[in-house]
Predict the structure.
Amino acid sequence: MHIPDGFVDIKTVVSTGVVSAGGLAAAIYKVKSYFKARVIALMGVISALIFALQMINFPIIGGTSGHLLGGALAAIVLGPNAGAIVIAVVLIVQAFVFMDGGVTALGANIFNMAIVGVYGSYLIYWMIGKISKKRTIFLISVAVASWLSVIIVSFFAALELGVSGTYALGITLRAMVGVHFIIGIGEAVITVAIIAFINKVRPDLILTRERSL
């Protein structure tokens, strides 16, 4: 999912960089409006958790593997604004320290995973949650939001590679969306397991339980 250096052209680098910078600036402004020590502490914990979980790969068919993206997890626990900041921080550290994802493609990666992935998953979670406040619906909303978030993010990554001329758009869409359709299942399983555990032992740590953020 992390786009390396040289895989997106200059127009994609600039346009996604501008949108990502604007999106993160807005997210930081929103988070500051309800700044609380508990929120900041949770952001640190979730950042470390997602960073660690992204290091664990699970095998999928075809000889490839997937790992947690964490956009839905961050959005559902922290809310979309703090979640976007958390995922962006993880991506920045990965790009500059571990060379995972290109530095020149950082704007595209932040746009895909921290903006589209986080806000998109939160919107799906919020809409399904409108059906009922029952625990079953809550967990279904977590599962669907996390699964779809991976597919949506892979679609935008494929789109950027296609418009950059790296590969034909049809090829990138089939390759990226097809494999992430399956990876999304792993994302949903891991996210539901973590959210269900937190909801059982410390439901107060899920800041969006009332869908208020």
Observations:
- The longest strand covers residues 58-59.
- The mean pLDDT is 90.
- Strands lie at 58-59, 65-66.
